[in-house]
Amino acid sequence: MRILHLGTDSFGGYGGIALFNREFIxxxxxxxxxxxxxxxxxxxxxxxxxxxxxxxxVTGAARGRLAYVRAIREAVRHGPFDLVVCGHVxxxxxxxLTGQSPLLITHxxxxxxxxxxxxxxYLVHKIRGVISVSDxxxxxxxxxxxxxGPAFVLPNAVRVKNYGVRPRRQDLISxxxxxxxxxxxTLGRIVGTERYKGFDEVLDAMPALLRTRPExxxxxxxxxxxxxxxxxxxxxxxxxxxxxFTGFIAEDEKPDLYNxxxxxxxxxxxEGFGFVFLEAMACxxxxxxxxxxxxxxxxxxxxLGPLVDPTNPAEIRVAIEDALAAGALRTIPDGLEFxxxxxxxxxxxxxxxxxxxxx
Length: 359
Description:
Elements: E1 2-7, H1 15-29, E2 36-41, E3 55-57, H2 65-77, E4 83-86, H3 92-95, E5 103-106, H4 118-123, E6 129-132, H5 135-145, E7 151-153, H6 170-175, E8 182-187, H7 199-212, E9 216-221, H8 227-236, E10 243-245, H9 254-258, E11 263-265, H10 275-282, E12 287-290, H11 295-298, E13 307-308, H12 313-326, H13 341-358
Helix pairs in contact: 1-13, 7-12
């Protein structure tokens, strides 16, 4: 079995989608029937990690749109492929260049409503099947698209061995003036198009929280163009002295960042899943998620952490206070095993078997 994977980024990429793609490709090449996975990335923003055996990573595909089109045509010329994977709804128009019905992967808010491109809205009816990272994303995709074909849920995987409970790094404590503080943390891209992540909602809860917990500091981790607005909002709320902005966090520094936190809180409204919750829990950090989006599935509908209504600042504050009051020794929850890579690989193989059996 030969597979063609069209993705935004994977090896050498940042963030949850890139990580999902890396794990998905690793699971594909581990399938007993797989001979090769040809990977065409649109972007390679950093030095790629080691590419797994049986995966052919075409770096030249990332040199612009025309280069990507040429890479697709070259791959098809050296086909055939038993399966084409389209790793994002925005790539559907390019996926049709393969001449095959692709397996579409949907991650979150981009797939929750009709697409801006009319061609893509048409093409969703030509796909071979759809994989969504959460039940919520699958349901919302099907609701608007009326897709009636095979639809699978494949939640993100976390490799706990890459994280773990660690001593807090003194240099990071000094860098962000966290000595003697109780730390709340949210990590994500800080841009206007992703204000749904919950930074504002935690800031709104801070004035009341600081009246009873003056030692609390809210660490907003990540980079992006919306930082000046959030800084002004913190200032307007009178909590600027209790808010820290870290800027860009490198992948290899993330476990140490999580280990600074007493609570990871992200009362978001538009997360398709929320891989950051898995990372925080893999570091033994208690998490607070939203009841309104895919974050609720990352915490197993409340089994791994409380759910809050992001429109209710008092509810967010109470959940934070409860988590801080618990003060338990940080431990990795047993239920996190549900999201292990081994289970991810098993689910991936079951999906591939279902599709190829019915093809």
